[in-house]
Amino acid sequence: MYSARRSIILIFPFCSISFVQVIIREYSMKDFKDVLEIDREAFNPRNPSFDMYVYLTYGSDIFVADFGKKIVGYVVTMDVDPLRGKIISIAVRKEFRGSGIGEYLMKRAIERLREKGKKEIALEVRVSNKIAQKLYEKLGFKIAETIPNYYSDGEDAYYMVLRFNEQ
Q: How far apart are CA 20 and CA 18, in angstroms?
């Protein structure tokens, strides 16, 4: 469901007594520290400060999963050209993985790119990251090619594409 700010509100029953609300919303500068922390946890030894600088400088759309006073995930999209977009990065804190937050972040990112008129969205994923691949396939992405030695450790990547006319 959406609020006036077009945030997606998720309610998770983490325990039998209370429910926890997670809001998918646009990034703001107050989220910077949490997003860097999540990025370091997920992608060490990458340079998250530089990555965030690039994302913000080049007009990327960034959405966060807001768990009260703590950001628990983020996704970054970029316009490639008028008809194509790209998912640049997505990460969820370890303790929240498997809760559906990554899927809702992806859905919001896809929705934003569609709102901008994109007909195709691409992303890269490690060949070994079967959990992420399964999510992307569930959302309609298909493997278009394998990119050899894509990552700094030499691992290959799958280049996956979602085309809206195929859904």
A: 7
What does the pLDDT read at residue 48? 61
Which domains are seen in the chain, by residue range?
1-118 (3.40.630.30), 121-167 (no CATH)
pTM: 0.84
Residue 62 CA to residue 87 CA, distance in Å, equals 10
Q: Where are the alpha helices (DSSP H) in the chain?
A: 32-43, 48-57, 101-115, 130-138
* pLDDT confidence tier of residue 149, bands split at 50, 70 and 90: very high
Distance, CA of 27 to CA of 7 (rounded, Å): 11
pLDDT at 69 (0 to 100):
82
Burial class (CB in 10 A: 0-12, 13-18, 19+), 133: middle
